[in-house]
Specification:
The structure holds two protein chains of two kinds. Chain A is α+β, with helices and mostly antiparallel strands. In chain A, about 55% of the residues lie in helices and about 10% in strands. Chain B has four helices and four strands; from the N terminus they run ββααββαα. The chains are: A alpha+beta, B mainly alpha.
């Protein structure tokens, strides 16, 4: 109200009655949320850095972990993650275009671009689910030592990784999976590896072409390969067979790597999933003409901010998890 | 709402007629940067992995710089911070930058210290 403003406050930006930042309440609150969310993600990534520096000599090499592309066989490190990054940047672009169309009050433009954004987000979430499934089911298999370290296997002649199935013997044994209906009802044995430790050890001793690869990274930046003699000594420490990765065991190396992978990409994937859901709600509002009647598309702008933020976080996750 | 857009990137090196054009240009730029990152990540040139600055490989510094570059363009052009008031922009950018730099410094130094404790053999963890 003009009458309550005393002379002089018109020059004072923060004197009241003005928008000092020239942004609406909703947009400012979205920025508040994004800044706090950025700090949460930074906390995760910084603790990842902490654990990595702690085990800097034995940390898994991401190039060797994420090597698969759907529908293709072979070794393609990074390619699929790069594709996912591109999909997310692309969906960010369609989101900016939606916001831009909203500024010019073009309802059909907003509908089209928001739809494309949702599709992009869905492809990304699907890709992440596939990436998780591949990571969990594992690649070659390994054995874990009593100290919790991982020993992987390599073929001596070609230098390629050896899968457990390549050399493990099949020994008929009495070991059966415990199920609830036999004996103690509350004790349920979950997962059993496809080869017992004994079968792997027998196969390893019989096949002189198989060497052990430890987690330690040498000066060239590769994992240390033991000689046949050292391998035979090292394999004595083995305590169990590990296939794939979960929160407790990880065939790729340090179990913390798997824990952070599930936590950080999971938290990010959850953000993308929520983003797709929010986008869907706004999309239906746009289709029904809610914002056309309201006279502005600021709602699209606000979810746009959230969506770009998710993209921004992925850029950092991509660098610190897959590249560095 | 800020309706006017500043239609130039690279400090005025590239100017655009419309906002849409600028968006596509930023997409092209981000794609190129990502492609460079992936190419470097796969090839890992010996010059870049062999040498290090401040205890980190040159390659990793390149990745971090390129990431910050991408983050800048996403925030400035996609989240249109370029069109916001300077005070809002600074509040949004410098608060997390300060806190994250502090946290990363503390945790990385500490992680490095624990690594040296493990390495010096006072603790047996690999048996």
């Amino acid at each position: 109200m003009d009458s309550t403003i005393t002379t002089g406050t018109e020059e004072n930006v923060w004197g009241g009655g003005k928008r000092p930042l020239e942004a609406s309440y909703g947009k400012l609150m979205m920025w508040f949320f994004l800044v706090s969310d950025a700090l949460t993600f930074s906390g995760f990534l910084a603790s990842y850095g902490f654990s990595r520096f702690k085990f800097i000599e034995t940390w898994p090499i991401a190039d060797e972990v994420f090597t698969h592309v759907p529908f293709f066989h072979g070794n393609y490190p990074m390619i699929y993650v790069a594709f996912m990054t591109f999909i997310l940047i692309m969906s960010s672009v369609t989101m900016v275009l939606a916001v831009d169309a909203g500024h010019r009050m073009k309802q059909n433009g907003v509908i089209l671009y928001l739809f494309l954004t949702i599709i992009g987000g869905a492809i990304f979430v699907g890709s992440q689910a596939w990436e998780w499934a591949t990571f969990i089911s594992g690649d070659y298999g390994a054995v874990e030592t009593r100290g919790g370290r991982i020993l992987q296997f390599v073929k001596a002649d070609t230098g390629e990784r050896a899968a457990l199935a390549d050399f493990a013997k099949t020994i008929p044994s009495e070991r059966v999976k415990h199920e609830r209906n036999n004996g103690i009802w509350f004790y349920n044995e979950g997962y059993q590896p496809s080869y017992s430790l004994n079968e792997v050890l027998e196969g390893f001793n019989a096949n002189s072409n198989i060497l052990v690869r430890t987690e330690t990274i040498n000066t060239e930046g590769d994992k240390t390969l033991l000689s046949r003699q050292e391998s035979l000594a090292k394999i004595q420490d083995a305590s169990q067979v590990v296939e794939g990765a979960n929160l407790v065991h990880n065939e790729y190396g340090s179990r913390l790597f798997a824990d952070f992978f599930f936590f950080i990409t999971g938290f990010h994937g959850f953000h993308v999933f929520s983003g797709v859901m929010i986008n869907l709600i706004i999309f239906f509002n746009v289709v029904m003409g809610t914002y056309q009647k309201r006279g502005h598309y600021e709602m699209v702008e606000k979810i746009g901010l959230y969506w770009h933020f998710v993209d921004l976080v992925w850029v950092f996750v991509f660098t610190f998890f897959y590249l560095v | 709402m800020a309706h006017e857009h500043k239609l130039e990137i690279f400090r005025g090196l590239l100017k655009f007629k419309s906002n849409t054009q600028k968006i596509w240009a930023v997409l092209v730029f981000l794609t190129i940067v990502t492609a460079v990152e992936v190419a470097l990540g796969i090839s890992k040139p010996d010059v870049l992995t062999g040498n290090s600055i401040l205890g980190m490989k040159v390659l990793n510094w390149i990745f971090i710089v390129l990431t910050l570059l991408k983050a800048y363009y996403i925030a400035w052009d996609f989240m249109h911070l370029r069109d916001e008031k300077k005070s809002l922009r600074r509040a949004i950018v410098w608060t997390p930058v300060f806190l994250v730099a502090y946290l990363a410094f503390i945790l990385l130094v500490e992680g490095n210290y624990i690594y040296s404790v493990f390495k010096d053999g006072f603790v047996t963890w690999n048996f």
